[in-house]
């Protein structure tokens, strides 16, 4: 087992997920969602710190985080975090990329439109976009 899997946040996430499952069985969905969210945040934090030369660990933690966000009922955050991890796809194994893509796609199909955050473009982003579009208009 490597150092990231021994991280105390991973151990706490496992405990939180176990307690969340118990809360679900006992009919306490709000407590379960809160515990799944805590687990997801911990797993996501550790996954982002795993270097690219450990793609199995990075992928396993990312998959667990995405799934935990969904179990918490936060499909928007599950999608957002999954896409964040896919942005560095070369730091994941083929299996990790495929599984995260599958989860993101699945959650996009069931998420309400307002669940998926749409980030506003800042002025610099808009200026760069307009400049690039202008260059292509002139070339055509």
Describe the structure.
- There is one protein chain.
- The longest helix is centred in the first third of the chain and has 21 residues.
- This protein starts with 7 loop residues before the first helix and ends with a helix.
- The model has no long low-confidence stretch (mean pLDDT 87).
- Helix 2 packs antiparallel against helix 3, helix 3 packs parallel to helix 5 and helix 4 runs antiparallel to helix 5.
- The chain has 140 residues and is an all-alpha fold.
Roughly how many Å apart are the termini? Answer: 56 Å
Helix content: over 70%
Task: Please report the number of helical segments.
Answer: 6
The overall average pLDDT, rounded, is: 87
Largest sheet: none
General form = globular
Radius of gyration: 18 Å
Total beta strands: 0
Strand/helix succession: HHHHHH
Structure summarized in a few sentences:
The protein is mostly helical and 140 residues long. The chain contains 6 helices and no strands.
Keywords, separated by commas or semicolons:
140 residues; mainly alpha
Helices, strands, pairings?
Layout: H1 8-25, H2 29-49, H3 55-71, H4 75-86, H5 94-110, H6 123-139
């Amino acid at each position: 087992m490597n150092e990231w899997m021994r991280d105390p946040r991973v151990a706490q996430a496992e405990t939180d997920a176990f307690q969340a499952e118990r809360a679900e069985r006992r009919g306490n969905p709000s407590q379960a969602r809160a515990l799944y969210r805590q687990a997801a945040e911990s797993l996501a934090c550790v996954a982002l710190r795993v270097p690219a030369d450990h793609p199995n660990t990075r992928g396993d933690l990312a998959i667990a985080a995405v799934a935990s966000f969904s179990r918490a009922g936060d499909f928007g955050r599950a999608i957002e975090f999954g896409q964040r991890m896919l942005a560095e796809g070369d730091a994941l194994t083929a299996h990790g990329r495929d599984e995260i893509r599958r989860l993101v796609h699945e959650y996009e199909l069931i998420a309400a439109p307002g669940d998926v955050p749409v980030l506003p473009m800042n002025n610099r982003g808009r200026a760069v976009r307009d400049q690039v579009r202008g260059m292509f208009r002139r070339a055509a």
